[in-house]
Amino acid sequence: MKLLSICKKIFFLGSTILAISFCQITLAQTTSVSEFVHKVYVSGIPYDEASQYKSSDVPFLIQMLEDPNEKPYWANIALLLEIIGDEKALSSLIAFIERDPGGELTESHYVAKTSAIMGLGYLINKSNSKKALNYLVAGASPDAWEKRKITGLTTKWHATVEERNLDMAKYAILGLALAGTKESGQALLRLQTQAASSTNIAAQQEAGVISQALSEHQKIVNEGLSGYYKKNHR
Predict the structure, then answer these.
(1) Of 120, 48, 109, which is closest to residue 74 (Cα–Cα)?
(2) Is residue 104 within 8 Å of 153, Cβ to Cβ?
(3) Using CA atoms in the order 126, 213, 157, 133, what is the torsion angle rounded to 10 degrees?
(4) How far apart are CA 78 and CA 67, in angstroms?
(5) This prediction's pTM
(6) 3 state SS of 153
(7) I need a surface site. Which of 47, 58, 148, 187 has the fewest CB within 10 A?
(8) Contact, 186 vs 217, CB < 8 A?
(9) Dist CA 9 CA 16 (whole Å)
(10) How far apart are CA 21 and CA 26, in angstroms?
(11) How far apart (Å, rounded) are the C-alpha atoms in residues 225 and 182?
């Protein structure tokens, strides 16, 4: 299942989440960064192939993430940066997530933003970044996205900013699952406890997502991200 499918699952099926599949296709190791992110991956970016790129590729990828001409490929670019896992890219990734064009967000732009939110889990997995972890933990609350002053909306998927904020919070929860660290697991457990005792509607809506995220988090802890994709999502 490709990343676009994950987005639609969250939009329309609520707690049916983290059915993430990165196809294990073979690409030539000589594929340039530009060629790699410009490909269309029917089943998502291949995790093992993406992991072959290095910190030396980060400056060029950041330039691409800031280039409006690369907009159709921003999701791939952000995810590749996060899979590389160099914390030097974190400020640029957060700036991309929070960069606000205002008004209507195209579907591809919104998918890129939410991919970048979720993909911070990859960066945490590689770098153990406390800053990225704290960003996701805070982002698990819909209110955080209001405070970050992101006003763009994709009206095909969300009638209100509040709906969009809840959706972004769910992607932050998915990111904590992908991180696969002790700290991200502890954060998910705290979120689960808070959701169980809360009368807040948004918190209750997140409960199913958190439960499934904890399950996937444990698989990633046991198998590692590469093993997780190979074993669970062929």
Answers:
(1) 109
(2) yes
(3) -40
(4) 12
(5) 0.86
(6) strand
(7) 148
(8) no
(9) 6
(10) 15
(11) 14
Q: Which of 178, 218, 226, 219 is nearest to 47 (CA)?
A: 226
Contacts of 166 (CB under 8 A, 6+ apart): 142, 202, 205, 206
pLDDT the model gives residue 234: 52
Distance CA 152, CA 195 (A): 27
- As a CATH number, domain 3-232 is 1.25.10
For residues 122 and 97, what is the distance between their CA atoms, to the nearest angstrom?
16
Instruction: Name, in order, each residue with C-beta under 8 angstroms of 66's C-beta and a sequence gap of 6 or more.
Output: 92, 96
Q: What is the pLDDT of residue 12?
A: 33
Dist. CA 133–CA 130, nearest whole Å = 5
CA gap 103, 222 in Å, rounded: 43
Q: Which residues of the chain have pLDDT under 70?
A: 1-30, 101, 232-234
Alpha helix ranges (H) inside the chain? 3-13, 33-38, 47-50, 58-65, 74-84, 90-98, 107-127, 130-139, 142-147, 161-179, 182-197, 201-232
What is the model's pLDDT at position 233? 57
Specify the pLDDT at position 9: 40
Query: Quick one: CA torsion of 83, 89, 90, 91, rounded to 10 degrees?
Result: -160
User: Distance between CA 78 and CA 76 in Å, rounded?
Assistant: 6
Distance CA 226, CA 22 (A): 10
